Amino acid sequence: MKNFFKRLINVKQWQKKTKIVTAIAAVAIAVIIVLSCIVPSKAQMMAKASPEMKKYIQEDKNLQIKKVTVTYNKLICINYLSFSTSGADGVEEKYVGFANSIHKADEGAWEVTGQMVNYTYRMLGVGENLMHGAKLTIVLTVLSIIIGVILGTLLALGKIAKNPILRNACSGYIFFFRGTPLLIQLFVVYFTIPGIFGFAWKDLFPGDVEGVYKGAFVAALIAFALNSGAYCAEIVRAAIQSIDKGQAEAAKALGMSYGQTMRKIIIPQSIRRMVPPICNEFIMVLKDASLVFAISLMDITTISKTIMTSEGSYLVFIPALVIYLIITAFFTYIFNKIELKFSVYE
Length: 346
Fold this sequence. Notes:
It is a single chain. This protein is of the alpha+beta class and 346 residues long. Helices cover 69% and strands 8% of the residues. It has helices at 2-37, 42-46, 51-63, 108-124, 133-159, 164-179, 182-197, 211-241, 245-253, 258-288, 300-311, 317-342, and strands at 68-75, 78-85, 92-98, 101-104. The protein has a 4-stranded antiparallel beta sheet, sandwiched between helices. Strand 1 (68-75) and strand 2 (78-85) form a beta hairpin. Helix 5 packs parallel to helix 8. The radius of gyration is 27 Å and the shape is elongated. The two termini are 13 Å apart.
């Protein structure tokens, strides 16, 4: 009874915190929606170009040459526009549009703001396919965990099986992938295996201009899923073995087979106990996904490093940290809700 009231108090406290967070989020969303409705358009920002820059742009149209590079990035309620001309006497102009006003972003706080918008836009992969930036990181993590949980369940059942060959094979797999660094496993999958068997991952996508990156994504997914499967296997095994053995004995006395016992009695109960550690494994894989920079896969970390190298600005790592933090916070919030509903604490 004491534990019941303790849980009830915890639930009420969590619900109170949830209401506060929801209210703050609602206000923030409302403000963002209002600001997004009054953000200056691209045409308005283009009109802010200097007479000299407008002359270059007109020459581009008349002579059909590419002398001016125009970069336009919009992030919901704030946008960024830059002009740059080629040649030794190149000219560059930058502008930030926010709250129905346009600010020159060549120096000071508005320059930093413009850089942050530009870097964030590129790392999020806005306007790009799923093989870019934050979208790649999230997709890789979700797929790795889904495959890892399925594989881990099979490995866990194999590790606690009565067959010694199956049990030792599954134990060996788990020991190997838990005992070696994920980065080395990624290198083996991406470099060593193709070298041994004489193929390239890009060959999976013949004729595709992004075949190299898609092939790297497949290799990364295989490495992360295999690694996650080993960790999920221990989570599943621990959850299964935490169920009272008396339930299995009672099922056996009722004439149920081992498979029926696991499927109808043990696993349904153990799923509730798997929720917290699997959610934690998801967050770990989400952060470990930054390792794909080692095979030049264009995730948040790789794009950040590329921007830093090309533009010489270390500010790029600030939005990278913020993006990772926001993604982690979002999934942590979702998982806390799931844990509160499905997990069991004793």
